[in-house]
Design brief:
With about 280 residues, the protein is an alpha/beta fold. It contains 11 helices and 8 strands. The radius of gyration is 18 Å and the shape is globular. The model has no long low-confidence stretch (mean pLDDT about 95).
Amino acid sequence: MRIDLHCHSTASDGTDTPAELVRNAAAAGLDVVALTDHDTTRGHAEAIAALPEGLTLVTGAELSCRIDGISMHMLAYLFDPEEAALLAERELVRDDRVPRAKGMIAKLNGLGVPVTWEQVERIAAGGSVGRPHVATALVELGVVPTVSDAFTEEWLADGGRAFVEKHETDPFETIRLVKNAGGVCVFAHPAAAKRGRTVPEARIAELAEAGLDGIEVDHMDHDADARHRLRGLAKDLDLLVTGSSDYHGSRKTVALGAYATDPEVYGEITRRATGAFPVPGTGGA
């Protein structure tokens, strides 16, 4: 089985629609794909309706968190999307994305970059607006050559010149909310240092004690040393190890299925989840 548990669509900051994502996942030879847009489940219904035969969809979201001033992302899988407390928190985070983007635009204007809200809104195309949309605007303007080059201290990285904070949930509260909604929690790309400061291992141990299920180890932003270290940490803390592409369509160079999750780990995630269940494809539209 080929299993990719971290992908984005136009419901947040990917460039494939949810329907295109599942069709492309099947074409890439995947057996299981997870749709984990930022702080939203808006793309799930479209993905399910288009799900090709032979491909299974894991529903989820990538939730924005902050601990000790450090931004982090939590992959939440197979939770009940209608559970009231988690839904309210997702909406609170999502609603803060527009004023945050406008704040970054104002800072960029102050730095002499002529980016506009209309440009960013066009790029987001109705999706949950985020830094990658602002980064894409910088690429369009010729300020940086790639989206990744915008995530530096010079521009949009945490603490960068044009960075603006948004509402982000305490990860201990996120774990509680996801668990109460029947879901499973995996810390996304925990050693992605180029994105900004990373969470110390001692704090990850505390998150494990609070119910964190796993950490994403095999990821494009982790080099071989980071993966080795994270595997050791996961073993010490009895955490599941996942691997994922963090696919964003054409917004990133990584391909669907570039990194994968072991079938036994996937099976354990589905065993632990009670809020929702993987959806088998039946040959969607």
